[in-house]
Design goal:
It is built from eight helices and 21 strands. It is an alpha+beta fold and 410 residues long. The structure holds copper (II) ion (CU).
Length: 410
């Protein structure tokens, strides 16, 4: 054991020495440079970030996991990368939010809840044009977290036109992306809880100039729906017959064609359900708002129906944002493994290694993990009431067991 430790220490020391001797001569130069030269081009970086090629796509909740919209890219006169996005706000959108056929009367950015994951690199000039559709009845805005001028903050305090865009009008928010991290964006028009709960929110990732270690990446946005129903929890756990074939079935030899893909139509699943579970009348005098359905990425139990297929020994990174209204706390817990957690994603060093992280409203971070052993593992909120109301999913981990390797949590 001691010999292994000593060997490891020697290895780390020699790597550190090589690295520092390599980078030290450039250190003074890069500290003051506005955009330090990177060894990777914008195009190469966008490619390893899995930037979507179809920017007009409306990702399904399954596709949302890996749909990264990096915008329309150009360069300004100084050579700075410019990324342009368009978000169209539409009210009265009918969004399916459970396999049982529950429909949410939503307000959306680009027709989905959550809105598209906006992905940029630190130092980029970001332009986001928000169009409030003509048919809408309410003003809306776009408030992005991170650093920017007040006029681009999407808040009407101070009389900024971007704080409330009238129906039929548009506003273009502009900022230099900084600092790197993972952020929520949302409408900031009052009553703000209503504008958020209706569905006007999404995730924004600002990547560091030097790429993070490469691994398979996913986006998870936690939310809830106050459907103004009195009855808590109109959803039910999906019966096993509706699940996609899992690894256990595969081993039992009854795997079906295409069963390990994530491509099953969600609409097809809804046809199994003959009637949407009924909702009772609202209690008289009950004024406190609450959520009836909780989800990750917009649809209750979606990743139980379509387990996320992972491989043993492979590294995964999840960008996670909590946009739950009315409940103060949300969380994510993964079974069978531990993850390194980077609060807000604003540092290269992880804060701790855990299997559960608690998130208040607007909280976010980055999780990095591997699985050593194959099998089906749950991931879910550690609030059991949320779990039963939709916030639960499955990892279908495949491959041979791997020897446990120490996680780099420092
Ligand atoms: Cu709004």
């Amino acid at each position: 054991m001691f010999r292994q430790d000593a060997y490891f220490l020697a290895l780390v020391l020699s790597i550190t020495l090589i690295f520092s001797s390599f980078s030290f001569p450039f250190l003074n130069l890069s500290v003051y440079a506005q955009t330090p030269a990177t060894h990777i081009s914008q195009q190469q970086y966008d490619k390893i970030k899995n930037c979507a090629t179809d920017l007009s796509k409306k990702p399904t909740p399954v596709e949302y996991l890996t749909y990264f919209n990096c915008g329309h890219v150009s360069k300004d006169q100084s050579g700075r990368t410019v990324r342009q996005f368009t978000l169209i706000v539409q009210e009265h959108q009918k969004i399916p939010i459970s396999y049982e056929g529950h429909i949410f009367d939503a307000w959306t950015y680009n027709g989905t809840i959550p809105g598209p994951t906006i992905r940029v690199t630190e130092g980029d000039l970001v332009r986001i044009r928000v169009i409030n559709s003509n048919e809408n009845e309410h003003p809306h805005s776009l408030h992005t977290h991170s650093i920017h001028f007040a006029k681009n903050d999407g808040v009407s305090m101070g009389g900024y036109p971007g704080g409330a865009i009238s129906p039929g009008r548009s506003f273009t928010y502009e900022f230099i992306a900084q600092p790197y991290g993972v952020y929520p964006y949302h409408c900031h028009v009052d009553p703000i809880a209503d504008h958020i709960n209706r569905g006007l929110y999404g995730m924004m990732i600002i990547d560091p100039r030097e790429p993070r270690p490469q691994m398979t990446e996913m986006a998870m946005l936690l939310n809830g729906y106050d459907m103004d129903y009195d009855q808590e929890g109109p959803t039910h756990l999906p019966p096993a017959s509706l699940f996609e074939t899992s690894q256990q079935d595969e081993k039992a030899g009854n795997v079906t064609e295409g069963a390990n893909s994530n491509e099953t139509s969600t609409d097809a699943n809804m046809t199994h359900v003959s009637a949407v579970p009924a909702i009772k009348e609202k209690d008289a005098g009950k004024s406190e708002r609450d959520n009836e359905i909780y989800t990750v990425n917009g649809k209750a139990f979606e990743y139980m129906m379509h387990p996320i297929v992972l491989q043993t020994g492979k590294q995964y990174r999840i960008y996670i944002v909590n946009m739950l209204e009315f409940d103060l706390v949300n969380s994510i817990h993964i079974h069978g493994s531990m993850f390194d957690y980077y609060t807000a994603g604003t540092d290269e060093t992880s804060d701790y290694n855990t299997d559960i992280v608690t998130l208040t409203q607007g909280d976010r971070g980055i999780m990095e993990f591997t699985y050593d052993y194959p099998g089906t593992y749950m991931f879910h909120a550690h609030q059991a009431e949320f779990t039963d109301l939709g916030w639960m999913g499955l990892f279908d981990v495949r491959g041979d067991p791997v020897n446990h390797v120490a996680h780099s949590s420092t």
